[in-house]
Amino acid sequence: MRLLYHSLAFYLTLHPTLTAAATSTTTTSTATHSASSTSHASASATVQACTIRSPNTHAFFDLNSLHIPDPASAKTKHPRPNSWNVSGYDLGYNFTVNFCGAVIEDLSDKGGVVGVEKNLWNDVGAYYEQGGKVYSLGQASSAPVFRGRKLVMNYTDGSPCGADAMKREHVIEDLGPREIIDPDKDKKKNKPSKGHEDDDDDEDDDRDGRKDEPKKGAALQRKSTIISFLCDKDPLAPLLTLSFIGASPDQCTYVFEARSSAGCSGIEVAKQTLSPSGVFGVIVGIAILVYIVGGCVYSRMVLHQRGWQQLPNYALWKGVFGFFKDLVIILTSSCTRFFPSRRGYTRVNGGLGGNSGGIGRNGRGRGDSDAENRLIDELNEEWDD
Ligand SMILES: *[C@@H]1O[C@H](CO)[C@@H](O)[C@H](O)[C@H]1NC(C)=O
Ligand SMILES: *[C@@H]1O[C@H](CO)[C@@H](O)[C@H](O)[C@H]1NC(C)=O
Ligand SMILES: *[C@@H]1O[C@H](CO)[C@@H](O)[C@H](O)[C@H]1NC(C)=O
Q1: CA distance readout (Å), 124 to 76, 140, 170, 178
Q2: Rounded distance, CA 108 to CA 130, Å?
Q3: Per-residue confidence (pLDDT) for residue 139, from 0 to 100
Q4: Ligand 1: which atom is nearest the Cα of residue 81?
Q5: Are 227 and 154 in contact (CB under 8 A)?
Q6: Angle between helices 2-14 and 16-40 (to 10 degrees)
Q7: Which 3-state string (H, E, C) describes 150-214?
Q8: Which of 178, 199, 253, 283 has its CA 20 to 30 A from that of 310?
Q9: 154 CA to middle of ligand 3, Å?
Q10: Could you give the C-alpha distances from 195 to 200, 355, 382, in angstroms and in order?
Q11: Ligand 2 mean position to 58 CA, how many Å?
Q12: pLDDT tens string for the chain (385 positions)?
């Protein structure tokens, strides 16, 4: 075994190009591995963020091209300065949306998001502005889902909405008069709120019992967004045509339609930690290693060779090396044709095999002169006519 390692080390030092190739394959494979693992970090270990495989057709969908990166960290020269805009038409406000990540607008600059905790402001996936206030349509999501054949993305946990939003305003307006502890808390919790009075009382419960009942806070109704993706195969179409479809009457749910080439199934890239070429490289590298090590051991132990002779198929490789040496000589010497000629004469239509000797030269040269002769003969015949 020690001998094996010895000979391996010996021949790897003799072949720096080979070691370079081997290490480069391993480094590229580790590089791709680390790159993919960092990009996977936000999602689960196996699924890349913002991609999904259809459970029915097993087609692969990647929505990452719709993500507008933060201009501060974007790599492109002219990053988009704003997220996707969508007209809200009759609603009276326009929406700002991003995919596979938060909107790039700084929402704390705009005065913060109504009813959303401050540490979540950086992760809002869609919002609108109304009356100088920013309302979140939900936290950004990187997990598209399939409903049957439909590719859908949903954002949840936006600003409070519906009855809860009204309650909030009441809380702000008249907090004082309602500091009464409700005796039949539990009964009301199970009932949907019916009117004003109940709403207010419920909110009291919320505030009083928040510490002991964190679940109650989670039950607060919040705005959410559903984005339905359509495949647009037209290569001339813009990357994304986002349309606002509608909002529920309580303005708790907003529905959008995203028509995009990203909604078409595509080819999954870099799913594996090792790219196909990386796998190929590793296989080739291992094969070469096995060939050299095995060949060396065989030559040494069985054929009792020493020195360079230990290389497997030494004669063959020597021949190959000689061939390439000749090839280089031929190519370089044919290049010298383009420098000022030392012979004072160049061929009329000499090709590659120009001035100096080499393997392919004679045949080529003869072919050329044959062609010249034929051409001259033809011209002669034409003159005769
Ligand atoms: C989107 O909105 C921003 C400001 O919020 C504006 O500068 C930009 O022109 C809008 N883009 C479109 C396509 O409406
Ligand atoms: C919404 O966007 C449209 C253009 O798409 C613009 O004409 C309109 O003024 C915008 N509305 C608001 C409230 O910003
Ligand atoms: C939204 O997506 C989450 C997963 O991200 C899922 O649990 C939830 O059921 C979805 N809600 C709707 C209304 O589609």
Answers
A1: 23, 5, 25, 33
A2: 15
A3: 94
A4: 7
A5: yes
A6: 100
A7: EEEEEEECCCECHHHHHHHHHHHHCCHHHCCCCCCHHHHHHCCCCCHHHHHHHHHHHHHHCCCCH
A8: 283
A9: 6
A10: 9, 101, 108
A11: 40
A12: 444 445 444 444 444 444 444 444 344 344 434 444 444 344 344 578 899 988 888 889 999 999 999 888 878 888 889 999 999 999 899 999 999 999 999 999 889 899 999 999 999 999 999 999 999 999 999 999 999 889 999 999 999 988 766 665 554 444 444 444 554 544 444 444 444 444 444 444 444 444 433 444 447 889 999 999 999 998 899 999 999 999 999 999 999 999 999 999 887 765 556 778 888 999 999 999 999 999 888 888 888 888 888 888 888 888 999 999 999 998 888 777 666 655 555 555 544 444 444 444 454 555 677 887 887 788 777 776 6
336 CB near ligand 2 (under 6 Å): no
Report the nearest-CA residue for atom 12 of ligand 3. Answer: 154
**Of the candidates 232, 266, 307, the residue with the CA atom closest to the CA atom of residue 10:** 307
Which strand (E) or helix (H) includes residue 128? strand 124-130
Cα–Cα dist 7/25, whole Å: 22
Q: What crossing angle do the helices spanning 16-40 and 276-301 adopt, rounded to 10°?
A: 150
- The closest-lying atom of ligand 3 relative to the alpha carbon of residue 152 is 14
CB 94 less than 6 A from any atom of ligand 2: yes
Structural element, H or E, at residue 250? none
For 294, the enclosing helix (H) or strand (E) is helix 276-301
Task: Determine phi and psi for 274, rounding to 5 degrees.
Answer: -115, 130
Going from the Cα of 93 to the center of ligand 2, the distance in angstroms, rounded, reads 7
d(CA 173, CA 171): 5
Secondary structure letter of residue 336 according to DSSP: G
**3-class DSSP state of 274:** coil
